[in-house]
Amino acid sequence: MFDYHSQAIEKRISVYAQVPIENGEPIQILRYEKNQYYVPHNDYFTDTYNLKHGGQRIVTMLMYLSDNVEGGETYFPAGGSGESSCGGKIVKGLSVNPIKGNAVLFWSMGLNGESDPKSVHGACEVLSGEKWSAVKWMRQRAFL
Ligand code: PD2
Ligand code: ZN
């Protein structure tokens, strides 16, 4: 089903992000079981190898494919001054609940073209259920 709709999804991401469709990397699917998480990181590259093909990653669209997950939030430690819940713990920053059909878009780079360390983010521990997400990265140039 995901495959059948993928053209429409890619078009929608491109329009929403205002980045040409051909700048997109292929969508990747992630699956987390109970107790799994993704340590905070930035999506932009720091190596020259990846930069040669398509340039830097400028924006990420993260789409949640599963419901009934406890924990599994996408967590932005530098996102504001409030507190939020991350895998059952209270943490500083912003977290987004993985609700099926929802998506979060964030930029890894400012309008000045410089990588933004404040885009750091991770996936909080899954406490129960199984989390599936789909991720689309958009580059500075066509990704061929
Ligand atoms: O699945 C997520 O919530 C997640 C969080 C942070 C995915 C990624 N990063 C990623 O694929 O870069
Ligand atoms: Zn990431």
Automatic annotation (TrEMBL):
Q: Which reaction does it catalyse?
A: L-prolyl-[collagen] + 2-oxoglutarate + O2 = trans-4-hydroxy-L-prolyl-[collagen] + succinate + CO2
Molecular functions per Gene Ontology: iron ion binding; L-ascorbic acid binding; procollagen-proline 4-dioxygenase activity
Q: Does the keyword Transmembrane apply?
A: yes
Q: State the compartments where it is located.
A: Endoplasmic reticulum membrane
Signal sequence: where? Answer: none
Q: Which Gene3D superfamilies match?
A: q2cbj1_9rhob like domain
Names of the cofactor(s): L-ascorbate
Its topology with respect to the membrane? Single-pass type II membrane protein
The record, for PROSITE patterns, names: FE2OG_OXY
| Main subcellular localisation | endoplasmic reticulum
Cross-referenced InterPro entries = Oxoglu/Fe-dep_dioxygenase_dom, P4HA-like, Pro_4_hyd_alph, Pro_4_hyd_alph_FE2OG_OXY
| Keyword tags | Dioxygenase, Iron, Metal-binding, Oxidoreductase, Signal-anchor, Transmembrane
Q: Where in the numbering of this chain does the Fe2OG dioxygenase domain appear? A: 23-140
A cellular-component GO term for this protein: endoplasmic reticulum membrane
Q: Which Pfam families does its entry note?
A: 2OG-FeII_Oxy_3 (PF13640)
The domain of life for this entry's organism is Eukaryota
Name of the molecule in the record: Fe2OG dioxygenase domain-containing protein
| Organism of derivation | Acacia crassicarpa (northern wattle)
